[in-house]
Design a protein that fits this description.
The protein is an alpha/beta fold. The chain has eleven helices and 15 strands. Helix 3 packs across helix 10.
């Protein structure tokens, strides 16, 4: 049927509109994808920038933090003090600072491994549980590497070798003792959960063994207050005690048959680490392996020279 002029005009307008719509629909897809891609790229860049600004450890290369547990009350191994003199380190969640041989060793390890150091203060019997619970990464606290402890934690190579000594007061009837046998009948004590208390004191014939003290300072105060005739400890603690208590006398029996009978493990002092943490153990051993017994002795002598008399 022949279309009228009006109908033809209407059809023409419809065709133009359809073409226009088709052109918009077909041309918009690539443009929209490109814009979306640019938006995504911008978003990722913004995320990376935000991570860097927020200090994200993995992305920004921020140092790892080594959380080291100790008593901060066991001079010359470790103690607390009110300021950062001599290079003392802040104690976490405290306004005090920690220093001593253990802190000096922790600082050296962190410097060598490029870690930040955090000191965690705990009482003696809480040290190993802190590793097991993840509260600390390692314990540097004058611990002997005993078979019993090795069942609970792993240990580094020794970071000190500590012989056993006996402390008495000047004028004591045991002042001139030359052997463990000469200590027979003594009233004695030592710190809880140590080889001194558990292994050494029972070797004194007819000893009157008092309850163990909670800490090394408590042990020394017991002797100073005449609550006992003697205490047994290791050589660094003994040397430090002589500085704090001039009336003390340190007895050393030479390590032979006349001395307390202990194993090498008992006098080797190590850094304890959570069982299975081979990465940290290997890293710490790599630092200790570069040091000699003389290095350990020099560091200990330095610690003794600056220890406060109160610890």
């Amino acid at each position: 049927m022949k279309k009228t002029a009006r109908q033809l005009a209407a059809l023409a307008m419809a065709a133009v509109t359809l073409l226009s719509l088709s052109a918009c629909g077909g041309g918009s897809a690539p443009e929209t994808k490109a814009a979306a891609g640019n938006e995504a790229a911008g978003s990722e860049a913004a995320k990376e920038e935000a991570k860097a600004e927020s200090g994200d450890t993995e992305e920004s290369g921020e140092k790892k933090v080594l959380r080291v547990a100790m008593e901060c009350a066991y001079a010359p191994y470790n103690w607390s003090q009110p300021d950062d003199s001599n290079g003392a380190v802040p104690i976490a969640d405290s306004n005090e600072f920690a220093y001593g041989y253990d802190v000096m060793m922790a600082k050296k390890i962190c410097e060598e491994l490029d870690y930040d150091l955090q000191i965690v203060r705990l009482d003696w019997d809480s040290l190993i549980p802190a590793l097991q619970s993840g509260q600390a990464d390692c314990v540097i606290a004058g611990q002997s590497i005993t078979a019993e402890r090795l069942q609970a934690v792993d240990f580094s190579e020794p970071y000190y070798y500590a012989s056993i000594v006996t402390l008495v007061k000047k004028g004591s009837k045991y002042e001139n003792a030359k052997s463990v046998a000469d200590l027979a009948g003594a009233t004695c004590t030592s710190q809880q959960s140590t080889i001194w208390y558990q292994n050494c004191l029972p070797q004194i014939e007819d000893a009157n063994i008092l309850a163990a003290t909670a800490s090394a300072p408590d042990m020394l105060m017991s002797l100073n207050a005449d609550k006992c005739d003697l205490v047994v400890t290791d050589q660094p603690t003994g040397k430090g005690a002589l500085v704090a208590y001039p009336d003390f006398v340190m007895l050393e029996f030479g390590g032979g048959e006349d001395d307390f009978q202990v194993t090498e493990e008992d006098i080797n002092i190590g850094i304890s680490i959570k069982k299975g943490n081979t990465e940290l153990k290997t890293a710490i051993d790599s630092v200790l392996g570069k040091m000699t017994k003389d290095d350990f002795s020099d560091m200990m002598d330095e610690a003794i020279s600056v220890q406060p008399l109160a610890n």
